[in-house]
Each structure stands twice: as C-alpha cells, then as structure tokens.
Amino acid sequence: MRLSRPLVTASAVLLVAGLAACSPDSAGAAPADGDGPTVVTVGTLKGQPHLYAPFLYEDLAPEGVEFEVVQFDTSPDIKNAVVSGNIDFGVAGVPSAVSGAAAGQDVVVVAAAADGGSGIIGREGLDGVESLAGLTVGYPQGSSQEILLRLTLEAAGMDADEDLELVNLPFSDMAAALAAGRIDAFASAELGPSTALQAGAVEVASPYDTPVGRVNIGLYTTGELIESDPELVQEVVDTHVRATEQMAADPQAWADGVVAEFGIDQAVVDTAVQNIWPRWEIDDEYAAQVAALVEQMAALKQIDGDVDVDALLDTTFVEATEAGGDS
C-alpha cells in the first residue's frame, strides 16, 4: 500500500526487510497493480541537507511512477539495503559505494547527488592547518573526511599521526566536543561544521583542495536493476536531475524544506547549504576524483579489494537524461 506521505523511517532491519516482503520482485521496484503506478523505494539519511533530493522526487516524478523515501542512520546501511534488494535506489555517500564494490557487492553509481558538505573547523583563533600542530583534532575514522584531513595536512607538509592528537568521534559528537573544549578542532560532515560555526567556531582550512575534490554523495542502484529495467532507471535518474537542479536553483527553498521536514535550526541549515553543491553530472573530473578517493581509501586500508571506477560509475543515464538537456 502506498503511504500518504513518501516517508518511512528505517532504523531497524525488520523495517527494510518489510519493504522487500511487500514486493514479489526484491531486485526491482514494486510493479504496478493493474493500471496502478510503479512504486520506487529510495533510501537517504535522516536530517541531512546534502541528501535531501529524494524528498523532492514525488512531486517531480513521471506519470506512472511514485516514490517512497526510506530514512537510514548511515550510508553503509543504505548501500546494504540497495545491494540486498530491500530498496531500489540509495542517495548516500560515494565512499560506501566504493566499499561495496571493493567487497564484490553489486552497486553502481548512476548519478552524482551532492558535492561538499565537509569542513575542517576549530576554536576561535585557529587559522590554517599549520595552526593545528600539537592540538587535539576530532575525526570520524574510516570516513571521507578523514581522507580530506590527511591530504590537506600532507599538502602543508604535516603528518596527521605525528603532528596532531587525533580523536575518533561520531559525526554527531563533533560540534558538542568542540564547544565543551574536549577537542580543539575537527574534520567532519554537515551538520557538524555549520552547528559549530553558528556557536562561534571558525573554518580552519578548506577540505576541498585535494585530488578528491568535493566528491561526497551519489545516487546508486544495482547492476541487476540496470540490466532488468533500464527504462525505470532512466526515469529515476531524470527525476533526480530535476530535483538536484531545483535545489541548486533555489537554495533558500531547499533550506526551508529541510527545516520543515526535520525541525532543524534554520540558521544552521542556511549555513550548511552554502557548503553543499547539488549536482548530477558524472564527468571526467568527477571520475578522476572518485579514482583519487579509491586510492586513498586503499592506502588507509579502508578497503581491501580492487575497484574498477569505470564499472562503479555508469554514465549511461546521466548522458541520456532529457531533464538535463538544457543545463
């Protein structure tokens, strides 16, 4: 049965498993009943402005397609739900897709979703990564923000393990730990940076001046669904393109939508959207940045297996999209 509002919270395995139980074909979207619509399930993260696009899909969907949004706590949870067939698509961190591909899972990125959303933030008075020498810096181990921090330090001739006192913290604890004085700075993802900035912290350095660039969030599905129903995948990508372009064209409406959906502080969200760049294109530069991400994840032993970036990134659908034809 279609929900009256395209929103489901999936904090437990039983809930996402229930989605599969509702569909006779766990490898694809729920088929239409008679003349009814095809219902596509899309996973995203709770309360994150850089993963807001799926909440716009329903109003932008083509005739005959409806969307249900399933909220998760982490990108790996979304990736696992996609590859298991419990949801059809996921808007989530590209590093999770890389990890899945390295582990031999069937995951394919069919569009970018948002760049940026990271920050290297510190207490008042810090300026430049050189000012972090000898200080306590929080970071989420195994994340893309760890990679960005290490590369930014390396470019300044510093070593994260030797020149800093690193503290592994959850994303959600960063701003509070900085405010309490338990750390001097942190590298993390939104909304941590914007929350801290609103409380008087400062941006220490840009995390984006590395070979990884701003790569962060993508739209992915499985190779099995691409093979079995490429027309549906194209329709979803077209919808995704419209959503990301709408966000980019009107950041204030995007921010207001996030606030209305999740009840987050308006000032924090307004700050966060200035640090996020909605996008859908997969071009050569993007592919090179993903390749750099893969290289760094392997160097830090975040992944074990090899990743074929050309296989991970399927550009077929963004190249064919009609929705982006005038972009």
Automatic annotation (TrEMBL):
Residues 1-29 form the signal peptide. Gene3D superfamilies: Periplasmic binding protein-like II. Keywords: Signal. Pfam families: NMT1. InterPro entries: SsuA/THI5 (IPR015168). Residues 63-253 form the SsuA/THI5-like domain. It comes from the Bacteria. PANTHER family: ALIPHATIC SULFONATES-BINDING PROTEIN-RELATED. This is ABC transporter substrate-binding protein. It comes from Cellulomonas hominis. The lineage of its organism: Bacteria, Bacillati, Actinomycetota, Actinomycetes, Micrococcales.
